[in-house]
Structure formats: C-alpha cells, structure tokens
Amino acid sequence: MPDRQPPEMAQVASETGAKKVHRTWDRVLVSSFLGGAYIAFGALVAITVSSGLDPDTWGTLPTLFMGAAFTLGLVLVLIAGSDLATGNMLLVPLGAMQGRLGAGDVAKNLTLVLLGNLLGALFVAYFLAVQTGVIGAPGASGGAGLTHERLAQIAEAKGLHESPWQVFLRGVGCNWLVCLAVWMSLAATSVSGKVLAIFFPIMAFVAMGFDHVVANMFFLPAAIFAGVPDLGWGDVGVNWLMAGLGNLVGAVVFVATSYWYLFLRDEPAEQPSRTPTGGEAAERA
C-alpha cells in the first residue's frame, strides 16, 4: 500500500480526532494512563543511557543519546496504541476546526487525557523508577547513583533554572516537533515507516532541551520521590502549567491550524465516527 499524501493525512487526522472524543470516559482514562506510562518508560531509559557521561569528555552528546532513547515513548504510544495529551492537542482541535466537534468536546478530552497521563507517569516514577532502585537514593553508588545524578540534573534544570517564559517557549518548540512526528506517522502504512517518521523529530526536541508536559510529569515527581533537594511541588506545578500551555500553542497554532488551512479549509465537514476506538494504530497519539 502506498504511503499517504498530506491531503489524505489531514483527513485521517481529523477523523481520528473526532473518534477520540466519541468514546466512553473510562476507555479514554485507561488509554491515557497507558500513554503517560509509555512516555515515562521512554524518559526512564533516556536517563539510564545518558547517566555517567562526563560533559568534559562527551560534551553535549549525552543529550543526543537521551533523545534517541526517549523516542521509545512515542513509538509505544503510536504503535501499541494509547492517548497522549500532546498528540491529542493536534488531532482533537483539528477535528473541531473541520466542524466535527465542539469546543467543549476538545476541552473535556484534553482534560481527561492529561489526568490519565499524569496518573500513568506518576505510577512509573514512583513504583518502577524509584521504588525499584533503578534511580537510586542520594549518595548511592554504582549505576543507581549515576541515574540519580542524571535525574537531578534534568529536574533541577527544568524545575529551578528555567524561567516560566523559557518553559513556555520550550513547550511550543517541543510540541511543534512532537506533532510533526505524529503527523508524519500518518503518512506511513507500515510499522517501520511510522517508527522512522517518529524518530527524528522526537530525538531533536529532547536533544535541544525542550519541555514536554507529560515527560515532565515523570521527571519532576521522580526527582522529588528520589530525594532531590530544593525542588518542591510548587516548582513542579509552574513547570507543568507553562509547559502545557506552550505544548498547546505549538500543536494548535503551528501544526493543526497550518494543515487545516492548507488541506481542510475548503473541505466539507463530515459526520464524525462514533464507533469506540480502542485500537487504532498510528492514528492514536
């Protein structure tokens, strides 16, 4: 089967956004719990592979390794199937722009998905990252100590050293790239093609240090659970708020609106599919 062209991708994205809304709340919550957990898995492996690399020797290459590893998260979301708030920030508003959904549908879906993503990320952070000892306690030796140091570096940078304005702008850049990964994955009709489409934009946003609200739902709580000093829940809340707003702007303004204008503005609105969808493949982000 040949790959889809951009006008076909736009139609698939709009229809997928409509389908995401017309599901029962429990399906959305379970799907988004999985999405948050999958992104947390990507973040945890990214910490692991980039820990212990001395910047004096490696320079900025650890961020490249981290970005390459983090792509696991979106590959799991798109191929295994789940809901991720940052992807829904593209798909659901795009469905609304074509007249398939209302503003209330968009707000309700994004709120529920963010909640599910948070629960999934917190579960992995507490039980599978900290309680397992993969991320060690302060002063731990060996690999656990190295992962603690790496997590502390990331969390302190995001929660303490970036200003709210910087977090917002990094959120914009992040989700512009994440949504391009989701968008390009719609072009591919094979698993290998989807993985290749996902890899480079995700690797790039992590390597550049941009802020992804769901990834930060893992990094920052995991740091608090692991005993990283000076970081508080107030810092975490500000980061989540500004990163989430930036992610929303990056998705809606720079991807959804742009491709709606290019490919859907003159297309007639169709009735959305109301079939519950727990099993789309690349179209679920």
UniProtKB/TrEMBL annotation:
Location (main, coarse): membrane
A Pfam family reported for this protein in Swiss-Prot or TrEMBL: Form_Nir_trans
Topology relative to the membrane: Multi-pass membrane protein
Source superkingdom: Bacteria
This protein's UniProt keywords: Membrane, Transmembrane, Transmembrane helix, Transport
GO molecular function: formate transmembrane transporter activity
Cellular component, GO, one term: plasma membrane
Gene3D superfamilies: Glycerol uptake facilitator protein
Transmembrane segments: 28-49, 61-85, 106-129, 167-188, 195-220, 240-264
Keyword Transmembrane carried by entry: yes
PROSITE patterns for this protein: FORMATE_NITRITE_TP_2
InterPro entries in alphabetical order: Aquaporin-like, For/NO2_transpt, For/NO2_transpt_CS
Keyword Hydrolase attributed: no
Subcellular location: Membrane
Family label: Belongs to the FNT transporter (TC 1.A.16) family.
Protein name (Swiss-Prot/TrEMBL): Formate/nitrite transporter
